[in-house]
């Protein structure tokens, strides 16, 4: 107990009043002075806040909502029905047995997000379990995604002669090492485009579709005209992640992604950070150079109070005027009583590449169940999502959504309950260098975390001026074998 006392004495009490740049004074909010203030407890904001804390920064993390997670929160069944203005259906099971993620994504076992979790040691608060199936649609059929030479030899996705070409390509990917010229087979992947590399291996268009979209996880075909090295690295990541645990390259936390923000909140507390829920921001305070230097919000007494900082990190909802809408995500959230994959797996991802369904964007199907403790026994939660360019969607949601998602909805079969949803993808207009406000992007339509992790890396680099080094991180999450 004596130890605790000395700790408390070391923390200086906050000043009685804080001076703002305009010369006025306000009482301090929480400790009054921080290195960073983070607004919104969405996943990206929590990861950044965790990385800043571990880096020795003092962080104040606030959210206007009284729950964690922002746009990426987990909700129970009753909350889902309330969200869409519907009457809850007790026949589906106990509401509390459901944890429905509003931005559902699977985690690549060897990917960047896992490295961030381990780097911050937040994985000690979480339990992961592997995802059972990873599928892709080709020529109207759903098949497992082959990721190794051995799987290529037996996959029904391609014909007899193409199997050998696919096998050769996957073996090349597996062996490729940018620092070992003898593994390059004479190909300069920093110059050669992905399309040129595929042509060298003589791969058919349908094969290229699933390599690019289900292995490398691109959501459009822009990568084909860019240097091939990134595509090969992404295929390698898929193969290595699959090799770690077997059935699929993906992991998912027990009880859903809502566990992640809470784990990061615990982490911040360990490092002396402060989390405040149900704290709307009254205004952002700027100095004479136009840089954000703090926020005003109400304190416990309901009086305006000021917390000072060197920079702010926030989700787009806190800075709507500094963001633009680039696209819309349309999706269906469904509760079912049966699995949806050919192998009847309790959890799975199915990717429908754009060219296979005559669209300009992939459709993603995501399915989880009681095996990850997110649904009542015998129930399944499925999401079907894609990017839509339809301008008439807001005025006619269910009609347009069912047209845009029809290829994915077909896979679901009979559903117990379903809701359509559409939201804007907002992107910050500026990097944040000038005004010290670093804003994240909205969550995309994909059913995996790779693009989300890229955004976290980007925000880190904008703050620090150097990339986040994940190479020092040893990856091992020990999910059940």
From TrEMBL:
GO MF term list: Rab GDP-dissociation inhibitor activity
Region (Disordered): 1-25
Transmembrane segments: none
Name this protein carries in UniProt: Rab GDP dissociation inhibitor
Biased composition (Acidic residues): 1-10
GO biological processes: protein transport; small GTPase-mediated signal transduction; vesicle-mediated transport
Family in the record: Belongs to the Rab GDI family.
Domain of life: Eukaryota
GO cellular component terms given for this protein: cytoplasm
Pfam families: GDI
């Amino acid at each position: 107990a004596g130890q605790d006392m000395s700790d408390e004495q070391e923390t200086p009490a906050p000043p009685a009043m804080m001076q703002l740049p305009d010369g006025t004074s306000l009482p301090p909010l929480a400790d009054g002075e921080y290195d960073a203030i983070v607004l919104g407890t969405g996943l990206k904001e929590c990861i950044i806040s965790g990385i800043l804390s571990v880096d020795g920064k003092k962080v104040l993390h606030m959210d206007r909502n009284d729950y964690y997670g922002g746009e990426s929160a987990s909700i129970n069944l009753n909350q889902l029905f309330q969200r869409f203005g519907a009457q809850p259906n007790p026949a589906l099971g106990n509401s509390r047995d459901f944890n429905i993620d509003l931005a559902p994504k699977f985690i690549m076992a060897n990917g960047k997000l896992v490295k961030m979790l381990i780097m911050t040691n937040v994985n000690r608060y979480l339990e992961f379990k592997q995802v059972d199936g990873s599928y892709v649609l080709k020529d109207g059929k759903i098949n497992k995604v082959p990721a190794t030479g051995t799987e290529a030899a037996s996959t029904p996705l391609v014909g007899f002669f193409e199997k050998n070409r696919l096998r050769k390509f996957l073996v090349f990917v597996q062996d490729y090492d940018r620092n070992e010229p003898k593994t390059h087979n004479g190909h300069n992947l920093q110059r050669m485009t992905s399309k040129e590399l595929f042509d060298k291996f003589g791969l058919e268009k349908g094969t290229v579709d699933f390599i690019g979209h289900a292995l490398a996880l691109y959501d459009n075909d822009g990568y084909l005209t860019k240097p091939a090295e990134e595509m090969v690295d992404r295929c390698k990541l898929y193969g290595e992640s699959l090799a770690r645990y077997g059935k699929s390259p993906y992991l998912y936390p027990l009880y859903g992604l809502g566990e992640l923000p809470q784990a990061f909140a615990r982490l911040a507390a360990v490092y002396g950070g402060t989390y405040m829920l149900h704290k709307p921001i009254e205004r952002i305070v700027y100095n004479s150079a136009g840089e954000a230097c703090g926020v005003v919000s109400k304190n416990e007494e309901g009086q305006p109070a000021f917390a000072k900082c060197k920079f702010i990190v926030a989700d787009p909802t806190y800075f709507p005027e500094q963001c633009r809408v680039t696209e819309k995500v349309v999706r269906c959230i469904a509760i079912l009583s049966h699995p949806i994959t050919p192998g009847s797996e309790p959890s799975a991802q199915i990717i429908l590449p754009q060219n296979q369904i005559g669209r300009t964007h992939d459709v993603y199907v995501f399915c989880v169940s009681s095996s990850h403790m997110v649904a009542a026994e015998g129930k399944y939660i499925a999401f079907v999502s894609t990017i839509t360019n339809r301008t008439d969607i807001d005025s006619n949601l269910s009609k347009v959504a069912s047209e845009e998602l029809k290829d994915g909805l077909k896979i679901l079969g009979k559903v117990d309950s379903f809701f359509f949803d559409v939201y804007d993808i907002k992107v910050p207009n500026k990097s944040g260098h000038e005004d010290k406000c670093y804003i994240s992007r909205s969550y995309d339509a994909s059913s995996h975390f790779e693009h989300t992790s890229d955004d976290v890396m980007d925000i880190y680099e904008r703050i620090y001026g150097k990339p986040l080094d994940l190479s020092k991180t040893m990856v091992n999450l020990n999910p059940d074998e």
